[in-house]
Predict the 3D structure of the following.
Amino acid sequence: MKKTILYIVTLFLLCSISQGYAQKENSKGHHNIKLGVEFGTDFLFGTTRKPDMVRENKSSYDWFDDHNYYCGFIGDYKALEITYLGIKPEIFFAKNRIGIATGIRLSRYFTTLNSDRNYYLWSVHQDETHTEYIKIRNIKQNSYYLGFPVEARFFPNKRELPVQFYLKTGAVFNYRIHTDNKVKFQNPVMETYAETVRRQADQNLKDFNSYMFLGVGLKVGRFHAGKRKYIPHFNVEVHVLDIMLTDKASSFIRANAGFGCQMTVQIPIGKTVPIGSRN
């Protein structure tokens, strides 16, 4: 939680400073705003979060000696796959060397809970006298989030180039709007327990989550192209480090860190005036 607050404060200060610069340049007729459509994928890795209802073998090597649960073993590590689509405007200042962007984003978080064999056991009911188990092949969890990204990027090269390298950092803050747990049973007759399993699988989820990233990328296209004012720009970037800032983004994994990639198409909007050496 402290990491999240610190990062939010840092980005807020950065945005405030950039707004001051942007207003100063705008008063001189110098500003540059792009409207972008983004698409990306991030993979975050961590330890498996095994729900209390799961019954499994002690390890992947002990299934032939385990007489209590003749089923598979769920591994200790898993991956959280995040795909997203969004719209975000970006404002440039300091002679177009620094850009600040924010917008709205729809994200899907995907994880699967499966074992190294055909099935594992899941407890659907337990009382003082008996426990009722069913056999599950896997549970695929899709959670959908509505959020907003806050990003900043810096172009080290002072000269305008058709293809230009940049550094980037940012964070995204999400609110969960829907979760869908698809359960595949060993025996189709057990479908009558599907709603019970779906409800139990949601117990470890929180509505809010956030993660940050550090990345590098390439911008394709010029800020100023003479009389051709509305020239789309393409950005391709790699997130060399993703860090999850909150817990319980998934029912089945404690996500820690990972990597990703993003593509953005941007269209200039508003007034575009050549500035200094960026002409």
Observations:
- The radius of gyration is 24 Å.
- Helices lie at 2-27, 194-201.
- The mean pLDDT is 81.
